[in-house]
Design brief:
Helices cover 21% and strands 30% of the residues. With 126 residues, the chain is of the alpha/beta class. It has one domain. The protein is globular, with a radius of gyration of 13 Å.
């Protein structure tokens, strides 16, 4: 259902196995990459969705539980996830339909103005 790209963060707490396992059974394939450029050039996406996560992040239990529902029933092209930081929170596009291309300089989709974008409020990236 989901091809998960794990970006290398270079952080000491990085754990790509923890990151991929935190997304649960919706992950069909995990691909470790060095940059967003590697995601753009990847041809391995055979699933309806792909996601991008850094190796020092993980999905909390609330997000893990709700992913299947969103990936199977959402009519959005892009799903935004919220990330908890020690002192605040942020949001970014993290889940994309197979045909949506991500920009090489950030986690935003190309041609965002033409896409339906929705947010998952049921959990966090930590």
């Amino acid at each position: 259902m989901l091809t998960l790209f794990i970006l290398k963060s270079g952080q000491p707490e990085a754990d790509s196995k923890r990151a991929s396992e935190s997304f649960g059974f919706v992950v069909s394939k995990v691909i470790e990459v060095n940059s967003l450029e590697d995601v753009i050039n990847a041809e391995e996406v055979k699933t309806p969705w792909y996601g991008i996560c850094y190796d020092n992040e993980y999905a909390d239990e609330g997000l893990k539980v709700s992913l299947k529902l969103f990936l199977t029933h959402s009519d959005a092209d892009v799903l935004v996830l919220y990330k908890k930081h020690p002192e605040n929170a942020s949001k970014s596009s993290r889940l994309f339909r197979k045909n949506v291309r991500v920009r090489s300089d950030c986690l935003k989709p190309e041609y965002a103005y033409a896409l339906k974008i929705d947010a998952i409020l049921n959990g966090w990236i930590i």
